[in-house]
Write a structure and sequence with these properties.
Layout (H helix, E strand, L loop, with lengths): L8 E4 L2 E10 L5 E7 L8 E5 L6 E3 L6 E4 L6 H13 L23 H8 L4 E4 L7 H14 L6 E5 L4 H12 L4 E2 L2 H10 L6 H4 L2 E5 H6 L1 H7 L4 E6 L16 H10 L2 E7 L8 H11 L21 E2 L3 H8 L7 E8 L2 H11 L4 E2 L2 E2 L3 H16 L1 H16 L6 H18 L7 H11 L13 E5 L3 H15 L6 E4 L5 H11 L8 E4 L13 E6 L6 H8 L12 E8 L3 H24 L3 H4 L4 H13 L4 H17 L7 H12 L3 H4 L11 H12 L7 E5 L4 E5 L2 H7 L12 E5 L2 H12 L12 E2 L5 H11 L6 E6 L8 E10 L5 E11 L6 E4 H8 L16 H57 L4 H30 L6 E9 L4
Parallel strand pairs: 6-26, 7-12, 7-13, 8-10, 8-11, 9-10, 11-12, 14-21, 17-19, 17-20, 18-19, 20-21, 24-25, 26-30
Antiparallel strand pairs: 1-2, 1-5, 2-3, 3-4, 15-16, 22-23, 23-24, 27-28, 27-30, 28-29
Length: 966
C-alpha cells in the first residue's frame, strides 16, 4: 500500500522531503520532485531518480509517531490541520480561493475559471471584449491552478508597454509574483545569475515582452530548454497565422514553441480572429493541436466540445456589472472647414500621383490620394511630413519623368497650401480648444483626478499637439506627455505608471494607437478625445476601452470631430468615417462586436476596406446600407457568423450556474480568518525561540513582520518595487484596506511608492506560504499530535487520516479526509472529518488542554488497524473513482480517434485533388501521416497519464484523539 504520491513524506540522503510531483523517468524508475522540510534542506526543491538513489524511504503511516501537543488550547494541532487543509486541494472544477482575490467579483468572471478547470488539460482563449477584465480572469484561473500544485512555474508574455501593469495586477490582486524581464530587468537578472545560465530556469515566474523574445535570439533559444506549468500569452491575436500572410511569422513560430513548453496555456485577446478560418485555426491549434487538422477545411464539430474559448461582450454582462461598468457618453462635434483647409483639400485632389514614373488614372491613383488624405485628416503637421517625404522620394531620382515632375510641382503646391493651415486656421484644433475651455465639458488641467487622453494615429500630430497645447491651454509642459510605439519599453511603462498616479504632474496624455490595446488609463481619467478618427472600428473600440472599462468610477466621456467641407469628394470620404463611428456606437449598444459591419476582423484589413470604399463610386448612403446588411446577416447567423457557435457552446452552461454552485465553501475552519490563523502561527513558531519580529493589529486585521533570512530569500521573487528595503511587510486580510492602499499608491510621487505599502494576507502570499511550510513540519518527522477531549466517550479513540489518490503525473485527483473511530471493545469505523469537528467543537481557543505529555500505549498500538480500515475504504473509493475516469477517458480517446481518422481522410482528399506526381504525393502522405500520428500519440499519452489514477492511495496520519482519562 506504500506509494510515491504528492504529499508523501520520504527520507532521501538522511533528509526529510515532501513529494510534490511524480514522473516516470527514462531509466524505468520514477523522478520525484521534492521540497525539503528538514532543517538542512528547508525551502529547497530537488529532483531525485529512484533508480539512482541508494534508498528512498517512504514513511509508513502505520509507524507514525504520536506526540503530545502541549500548546494552549491545542493551538498547534489546529494550525497543523489547517495547514494541510489549505495545502491539499483536489483537481476538481470548483473555485477554492480565487473568488477571494482583491477585486469586486462578478459572476461572469467565474466562467473562464470553471471552464478551464473542467478541461482535462487547461488550454483556453479568454476572448472577452475590450475592458471586461481578461487579466483578472487569467489571474483567477492561475490562482486555482497554483492551489492545485499546477502553477509553480509561470511565464507571461505581454506587450512591452504592459509589462509593469500586468505584473502589478498579478501581485497586488493575487499575490502572484512575476520577475519583469524588460530591458532594465534583463540587465538586473544578468548581474544576479551565473553566465550562460537560463534566466527562465533561475526564476520560477517571469514576464517578458514578445518584442524582446522576437529580437533576442539568445532568449528565444532559452525557451527551448525551459518548462513551465502555466504560460499566458496576452494580446494573442498578434501571434496568429494571419490569413494575409503567405509565410509563417516569427511571432507565430515563437507562439508554437511556447505552446509546447507548458501543460497549461492561457491566451488573452479581445480580437481573437481576423475573419479567416486559417487565422482562427492557428490559435485553436496552439491550444490543442488535435483540434483542427486542415486549417482551410474544418467545421465546428472539430472543436465544439473542447471548451477552448470564452467570449462575452459588454451587452452580455452590463446588467451584472452595474456601477462598476458605467455606460459611456459619446459626443460628436461638427466643424466647418476653414478656407485654408478647403484650399488644401482642392490642392490634394489636383495631385497627379505617379506609379513607376507614370501617371495612371483609376484605382491606383485613388488609393494614393486616399493614403495621402489620411495624413491630412490627422493634422497639417503630419500632412507636411507626408508631402515632404514624397517630394524627397521623387526628387532623388537622377532623371525624373515628365509625369513625376508634374507630381512634384503639384506636391509643392499642396505643401504650400497645407503650410497655410496655421493653428488659427486649423478648425479641428480650434474646436478642441473651445471644447476644453468652456461649456459643460470644460477642462482646465488643474484637477489631478480629472485627466485627459487624446488619441491620434500620427506621431507628428502628437508632437505638434505637445508643443501647441501648453501655450493655448496655459498648462505647463511637464503636464503633457506623449506615448507612442517608437519609445523604449521602460519609457512606455514609466509614462503609463505615472499617468495612473495622483501626485504626478501629468494631466494630459497624447497617445498613438500603441496605447489602444490593454492599458489601464481609467485611474483619475474618464475623458477621451479622438483628435483624428481611426479608419478601423476595432481601433476605435480599443481606444475607448482604455477608459471605458470594468472598474471605471465615473461615466466615460468620449469626443470625436466631424469636419464639413464643400469639396464633394473629400466630403464623401469624411462622411464614410462618420458612418463608421455611428456603426461602432450601434454595436456598443446593441450588437456587441463592431466587426460585423466591415467583416474584416483585423485592423489593417478594416483600414484597407475603408480605403476601398473611399475609392469606389458608391455613395455614403449606399455604403451605409451595405454595412447594415452585413450586420443584419451576422445577427441572423448567430452574431459572429461561423465562429460564434464556438463561443456560445463554450460558455452557455457556465452562465446558468450560480456562484454558490461554483465556489467551494470551506468545509472546516478552525480560525475565523487568515489573520487569526497567521497570528496564531507566528505565536506558535516564536515559542519558545523567536524566529521573526512581528506585531498584529486586530482592528485592521493586519500582521507586520520583519522577514528573517530564510523568508528574505523567498521574497526575492516578488517585484523589486514591492520589496521593503527594511525587509518589513504589512499584510492585511481586509480588501477595503487593500483598495485604499492601491488608491494611495496611485497618489505617490515616484519609485516604489507607486506600489501599495500593504500586502494581501491570504494563503497564496509568499509570507503565508512560508508559515505553512514551517507549520507542516512543526511536530517533527513522521509524527502526529494527540488531542484529549472530554467530548469523546470513555475508551473512544479517533485518528484523523488524509488519503490522496493521484494520477500518473502525480497530481492529486482525489483528497479524502476521514476519521477512523473506535469505541471501547469495537472495531474501527469511519466517520467524516466534519462530523468529528462538529461533535468535539474543534475551534481555536475553544478546546481545554491540560498539557499532558504521556501518550497511551494502546493509542499507538491501535494505529495500524485504523490505517487498514482507511486503506480498504480508499481502495473502494479508488475503484469507483477510477471507473468514472475510465468512462471519461474512453470517451476522450474515442473522440481523439475520430478526429485523427478525420484528419487522415482530409489528407487523402487533398492528395486526390492535387496535380502533383505520385512520388511527391507519397512523400507528402508519409510525412503528414507521421506528423498527425505524433501529435495524437503525444496527446493520448498526456490524457492517459492525467486521467488514470495510481492503484494505491497515499495515507497520512494527521492527528489522534482520545479521552482525557485514557
Amino acid at each position: 500500500m506504500l506509494n510515491y504520491a504528492p504529499g508523501a513524506r520520504v527520507e532521501i540522503r538522511d533528509e526529510l522531503w515532501i513529494v510534490r510531483r511524480v514522473e516516470r523517468s527514462s531509466d524505468g524508475g520514477l523522478a520525484l520532485l521534492c521540497d525539503g522540510i528538514s532543517e538542512l534542506v528547508r525551502d529547497r526543491s530537488a529532483w531525485f531518480l529512484t533508480e539512482l538513489e541508494g534508498e528512498v524511504r517512504l514513511l509508513d503511516p502505520a509507524l507514525t509517531e504520536l506526540v503530545p501537543d502541549k500548546s494552549p488550547q491545542y493551538r498547534d494541532t489546529l494550525l497543523y490541520l489547517g495547514t494541510l487543509l489549505r495545502r491539499n486541494i483536489p483537481n476538481d472544477d470548483k473555485v477554492h480561493l480565487a473568488s477571494r482575490a482583491v477585486m469586486r467579483l462578478k459572476q461572469y468572471q467565474l466562467v473562464p475559471v470553471t471552464q478551464g478547470l473542467r478541461q482535462p488539460r487547461t488550454r483556453i482563449l479568454i476572448a472577452d471584449s475590450v475592458g471586461l477584465g481578461k487579466t483578472l480572469e487569467a489571474g483567477m484561473l492561475a490562482t486555482e491552478l497554483i492551489q492545485r500544485g499546477r502553477g509553480k512555474r509561470i511565464l507571461v508574455v505581454s506587450q512591452k508597454s504592459m509589462l509593469t501593469q500586468f505584473q502589478k495586477e498579478f501581485w497586488t490582486r493575487f499575490t502572484i509574483p512575476l520577475v519583469r524581464l524588460d530591458s532594465v530587468g534583463l540587465a538586473r537578472v544578468r548581474n544576479r545569475i551565473p553566465a550562460n545560465h537560463n534566466p527562465f530556469n533561475f526564476y520560477d515566474r517571469t514576464i517578458i515582452s514578445m518584442d524582446t523574445l522576437k529580437s533576442n535570439l539568445e532568449y528565444r533559444n532559452y525557451l527551448s530548454n525551459a518548462w513551465w506549468d502555466i504560460i499566458i500569452i496576452d494580446e494573442c491575436h498578434k501571434v496568429s497565422n494571419k490569413s494575409s500572410s503567405t509565410t509563417t511569422s516569427l511571432l507565430t513560430r515563437l507562439a508554437r514553441l511556447l505552446a509546447t513548453r507548458s501543460d497549461t496555456l492561457i491566451m488573452l485577446s479581445a480580437t481573437p480572429h481576423d475573419g479567416s478560418a486559417r487565422s482562427f485555426a492557428s490559435l485553436m491549434n496552439l491550444l490543442d493541436p488535435t483540434a483542427i487538422g486542415d486549417p482551410d477545411n474544418f467545421d465546428q464539430d472539430d472543436y465544439r466540445d473542447k471548451g477552448l474559448v470564452v467570449r462575452r461582450f459588454r451587452k452580455d454582462i452590463q446588467q451584472e456589472a452595474g456601477a462598476d461598468f458605467p455606460e459611456r457618453a459619446l459626443f460628436e462635434h461638427r466643424i466647418q472647414a476653414s478656407p485654408a483647409e478647403e484650399a488644401a483639400y482642392r490642392a490634394l485632389l489636383e495631385i497627379p500621383f505617379t506609379q513607376r514614373g507614370e501617371q495612371r488614372s483609376g484605382r491606383p491613383q485613388e488609393l494614393q490620394r486616399i493614403a495621402t488624405q489620411k495624413w491630412l485628416f490627422s493634422s497639417p503637421a503630419s500632412a507636411i511630413l507626408s508631402a515632404e517625404n514624397r517630394i524627397k522620394q521623387l526628387s532623388k531620382r537622377e532623371s525624373p519623368t515628365s509625369a513625376e515632375r508634374a507630381e512634384i510641382e503639384a506636391q509643392q503646391r499642396y505643401l504650400k497650401a497645407v503650410n497655410n493651415i496655421t493653428a488659427p486656421q486649423f478648425t479641428k484644433y480650434q474646436q478642441l480648444l473651445q471644447l476644453l475651455s468652456g461649456g459643460q465639458h470644460a477642462w482646465g488641467g488643474n484637477d489631478a483626478k480629472d485627466r485627459l487622453v487624446i488619441f491620434s494615429e500620427r506621431i507628428e500630430t502628437l508632437k505638434w499637439l505637445g508643443e501647441q497645447l501648453p501655450k493655448d491651454l496655459r498648462i505647463k509642459a511637464k503636464q503633457i506627455e506623449i506615448l507612442h510605439g517608437g519609445m523604449s519599453d521602460t519609457d512606455q511603462q514609466e509614462i503609463v505608471d505615472r499617468f495612473g498616479r495622483l501626485d504626478d504632474p501629468i494631466r494630459l496624455l497624447l497617445c498613438s494607437d500603441v496605447a489602444s490595446e490593454g492599458l489601464n488609463l481609467h485611474y483619475f481619467c474618464h475623458r477621451l478625445i479622438h483628435f483624428d478618427l481611426p479608419w478601423s472600428l476595432m481601433t476605435f473600440q480599443q481606444r475607448n476601452g482604455r477608459i471605458d472599462r470594468f472598474g471605471q468610477t465615473q461615466q466615460p466621456i468620449i469626443h470625436w470631430f466631424a469636419t464639413e467641407t464643400s469639396v464633394e469628394q473629400i466630403k464623401g470620404d469624411l462622411r464614410i468615417l462618420e458612418i463608421l463611428i455611428r456603426k461602432e456606437d450601434q454595436a456598443y449598444r446593441n450588437l456587441g462586436d463592431p466587426t460585423v459591419f466591415l467583416k474584416a476582423h483585423d485592423k489593417e484589413k478594416e483600414e484597407e476596406q475603408v480605403q476601398e470604399l473611399m475609392s469606389s463610386e458608391e455613395s455614403a448612403e449606399q455604403i451605409e446600407k451595405k454595412l447594415d446588411q452585413n450586420a443584419e446577416k451576422a445577427q441572423q447567423e448567430g452574431g459572429e457568423e461561423w465562429w460564434m457557435d464556438l463561443f456560445q457552446d463554450s460558455s452557455t452552461q457556465q452562465k446558468e450556474e450560480e456562484p454558490e454552485e461554483v465556489i467551494r465553501q470551506d468545509i472546516v475552519r478552525f480560525f475565523d480568518s487568515d489573520w487569526s490563523f497567521a497570528k496564531a502561527a507566528l505565536e506558535a513558531l516564536n515559542d519558545p525561540d523567536p524566529i521573526a519580529q512581528w506585531s498584529s493589529d486586530e482592528a485592521s486585521q493586519a500582521i507586520t513582520i520583519t522577514a528573517p533570512k530564510d523568508l528574505q530569500t523567498r521574497l526575492r521573487q516578488i517585484p523589486v518595487e514591492a520589496r521593503s528595503p527594511e525587509d518589513q511587510y504589512t499584510l492585511t486580510t481586509q480588501i477595503a484596506l487593500m483598495d485604499k492602499a492601491l488608491d494611495q499608491a496611485r497618489q505617490a510621487k515616484s519609485g516604489s511608492e507607486t506600489w501599495p505599502d500593504k500586502n494581501y494576507l491570504w494563503p497564496q502570499h509568499p509570507v503565508m506560504e512560508w508559515l505553512l511550510d514551517r507549520l507542516e513540519s512543526h511536530f517533527g518527522r513522521h509524527a502526529a499530535p494527540v488531542v484529549r477531549s472530554n467530548k469523546l466517550e470513555p475508551g473512544e479513540v479517533a485518528f484523523v487520516l488524509m488519503a490522496i489518490i493521484p494520477n500518473r503525473k502525480g497530481q492529486p485527483l482525489m483528497v479524502e479526509w476521514q476519521v477512523a473511530r473506535q469505541l471501547s471493545g469495537q472495531d474501527f469505523a469511519l466517520e467524516s472529518f466534519k462530523s468529528l469537528v462538529d461533535r468535539l467543537g474543534l475551534k481555536a481557543k475553544a478546546i481545554p488542554s491540560r498539557g499532558e505529555e504521556n501518550i497511551p500505549t494502546a493509542l499507538q498500538q491501535a494505529l495500524p488497524s485504523a490505517i487498514e480500515v482507511m486503506n480498504q475504504f480508499m481502495i473502494g473509493q479508488q475503484k469507483e473513482f477510477s471507473s468514472e475516469l475510465k468512462t471519461k477517458l474512453e470517451k476522450t480517446l474515442a473522440s481523439l480517434k475520430e478526429l485523427q481518422d478525420k484528419q487522415l481522410k482530409q489528407l487523402e482528399l487533398q492528395l486526390e485533388q492535387s496535380r502533383e506526381v505520385e512520388t511527391s504525393k507519397t512523400r507528402k502522405r508519409q510525412h503528414r501521416t507521421q506528423e498527425i500520428g505524433r501529435v495524437f500519440d503525444d496527446y493520448r499519452n498526456w490524457v492517459e497519464n492525467t486521467m488514470q489514477t495510481e492503484p494505491v492511495p497515499f495515507i497520512q496520519v494527521l492527528a489522534a484523539f482520545c479521552h482525557p482519562d485514557a
